[in-house]
Q: What sequence folds into this?
DNA sequence: CGTTCGATATCGCCT
DNA sequence: AGGCGATGTCGAACG
């Protein structure tokens, strides 16, 4: 249960550490990797991905992370997103390429089975290799999402308008659940779509789809009137135009 | 230009390393951080985020990455996504909290100015602290995206249908650019929307919005006929229903 | 499994 | 800076 940290190890030393940390060896130069917690490496490498799309990344120094759930991440020194990755459930192995007597590359290979995709990270030099074995049972506690907007409206329906009566949360339609389904003070059916941030035309289309689906479902029995209300902090101009064209309404509400 | 790597440093040693690596000190116990390439740390910490939403994460061992562009990432031992983060452009500092004589916490604070959001990472123990200074000029070369589908169709228009004539790529509408705008063998106007993966109802709505916008723009001058074609590897059932209702068409094409 | 949609989405392009 | 759409989007909830 001790972390292993190597500074500027040779490719062979790196391979041996990965080998020592895991009993299942494929061949003398191929080693399955199962991280206990995380394996973190920083080194000079080249990256190739082949799958639904394909990509290549020329040599450079970057950070590679292998997680215990099979996630693989490659981070350059900018941006929030990994330049290449493999999602959870992938399997990892290390391959030591030898030319004559000398190891030339240490390849970390990550394979995803469905869809079949392969990620190859070929190291020429390794500046840092660490096998980290910490404990982490904690789970994130998040508030301020769309769900909490809905909770607030259910508790205080006149945030939408005076006399609004919510009936059903997440009411099912063929195109997905309506956020809040209710009636206004006159008895008209009201479909509410919530967004936690400024909305564009896509949200208007989404609301329209729900209304059309419900209208088709219910209007055959009774001749009800339908209103659609988009609830968000703000709305773009083009979305406002579309909204008015479609006879829908907007209510401003912060998350 | 040498990497600095500490294994199981004290909070004070960690703070001193960060201090040594950067000349601008705010106070004796507050230190601005500007990573040359990346700062990578693994330790026992608690995380709080307050901004558009807010979150808290109880103590556990996790990986923290600070990048030179101001990105901050916190990774647990599962999933592709960071549990907390700050996007590029944020500013980082280290704060050593002292109770009596003893340091109790090393806080890495990341602040984003617009919108104003603060991320606090409070370390109790540090298992690994590394200041990494590699070089990476390489850029990702990706193929197989939506753009390449468009290129293929422009070169070989009958992938859409016999006699299709593309006229304009990315033609502007008030709701965004139409992927391919053209005519069929009868002279009807054709609006093509490309998707590199299986499409749902949102793509149908998107295509319909474009057609409506173009129809409004052009039909006043001439009485043209409009066709909308969704091009993707496949389509979901509900999207197919919606598509037929709207009088639109589907062509299957792999990316 | 597939479908659908939210996200502290991020990112890039264009106006 | 804001609008808009793509992403190898990811992730969760539900059928």
A:
């Amino acid at each position: 249960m001790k972390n292993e940290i190597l500074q500027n190890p040779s490719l062979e030393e790196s391979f041996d550490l990965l080998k020592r940390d895991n009993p299942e060896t494929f061949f003398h130069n191929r080693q399955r990797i199962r991280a206990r917690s995380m394996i973190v490496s920083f080194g000079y490498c080249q990256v190739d991905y082949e799958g639904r799309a394909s990509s290549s990344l020329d040599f450079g120094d970057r950070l590679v992370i292998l997680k215990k759930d099979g996630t693989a991440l490659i981070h350059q020194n900018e941006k929030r997103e990994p330049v290449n990755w493999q999602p959870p459930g992938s399997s990892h192995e290390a391959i030591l390429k030898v030319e004559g007597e000398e190891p030339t590359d240490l390849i970390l290979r990550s394979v995803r089975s469905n869809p079949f995709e392969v990620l190859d990270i070929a190291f020429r030099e390794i500046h840092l290799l660490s096998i980290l074995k910490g404990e982490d049972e904690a789970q994130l506690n998040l508030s301020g999402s769309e769900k909490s907007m809905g909770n607030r409206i259910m508790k205080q329906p006149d945030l939408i308008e005076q006399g609004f009566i919510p009936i059903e949360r997440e009411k099912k339609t063929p195109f997905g659940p309506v956020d809040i389904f209710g009636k206004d003070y006159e008895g008209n059916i009201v479909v509410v779509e919530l967004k936690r941030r400024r909305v564009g035309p896509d949200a208007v289309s989404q609301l329209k789809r729900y209304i059309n689906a419900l209208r088709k479902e219910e209007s055959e029995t009774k001749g009800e009137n339908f209103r659609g209300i988009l609830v968000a902090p703000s709305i773009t101009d083009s979305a406002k135009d579309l909204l008015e064209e479609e006879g829908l309404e907007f209510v401003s509400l912060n998350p």
Observations:
- Chain A is about 20% helix and 45% strand.
